[in-house]
Design a protein that fits this description.
Layout: H1 3-21, H2 25-43, H3 50-67, H4 77-95, H5 116-129, H6 133-143, H7 148-155, H8 159-180, H9 184-191
Helix pairs in contact: 1-2, 2-3, 3-4, 4-7, 5-8, 6-8, 7-8, 8-9
């Protein structure tokens, strides 16, 4: 997305938030439709359950509806919205006594795809799932193109913490990917 398109999107989101703050339900619907898919992809990292994703998305927009007048426009509207979704997802997972989509891969079937790209994406997704939630979220947001400041706004932490999470996330990913790929020797050589 070029700078002009981002600026235009930010301006329209700003106008929609102003209208939502004034009680315009149509503006909330437009905002919902504009963010629903992106939030679903983002929330997929926390839970693989479509019902939970829908519930968290709806809860996110309920918070937006109730608090749009409190948004101070100090950050991009998308940062504010994704930050709400992030905190809502964490709260939902805690209340249900679950952890975001992580797990032991020994009990899952491995999808085999003859396409190397798909196989690589699957391998990387499994590696990311093994990371602590904070590191995985920071890495995914960074590779989705969000700048450090915006990742900090979304996750509610200072830029230094974002940098640390990115550093440790990359380090841990480098350590677990060889294991997932079946190259245990490479990992043992790195540890020694």
């Amino acid at each position: 997305m070029d700078a002009r398109a981002i600026r235009c999107s930010r301006e329209s989101d700003t106008q929609l938030l102003i209208a939502v703050a004034a009680g315009n339900r149509g503006a909330l619907e437009k905002l919902y439709l504009g963010y629903q898919r992106r939030l679903a992809r983002f929330l997929w990292r926390f839970t693989r359950c479509r019902e939970s994703i829908e519930e968290i998305t709806n809860d996110t927009f309920m918070v937006i509806w109730r608090n749009a007048s409190r948004f101070r426009f100090a950050s991009a509207p998308s940062s504010w919205i994704f930050g709400i979704a992030y905190r809502t997802a964490l709260k939902s997972m805690r209340q249900e006594g679950r952890h975001p989509a992580t797990g032991d891969f020994g009990d899952r079937e491995q999808a085999v795809d003859p396409m190397p790209e798909t196989e690589m994406q699957d391998w990387l997704a499994h590696g990311l799932e093994r990371l602590p939630d904070e590191q995985r979220t920071a890495l995914e947001l960074a590779y989705a193109g969000y700048p450090l400041a915006q990742i900090g706004e979304i996750t509610g932490v200072p830029i230094g913490t974002v940098k640390a999470r990115l550093f440790h996330g990359r380090h841990n990913l480098r350590r677990c990917l060889p294991i997932l790929g079946g190259d245990v020797f490479e990992l043992s050589a790195e540890i020694e």
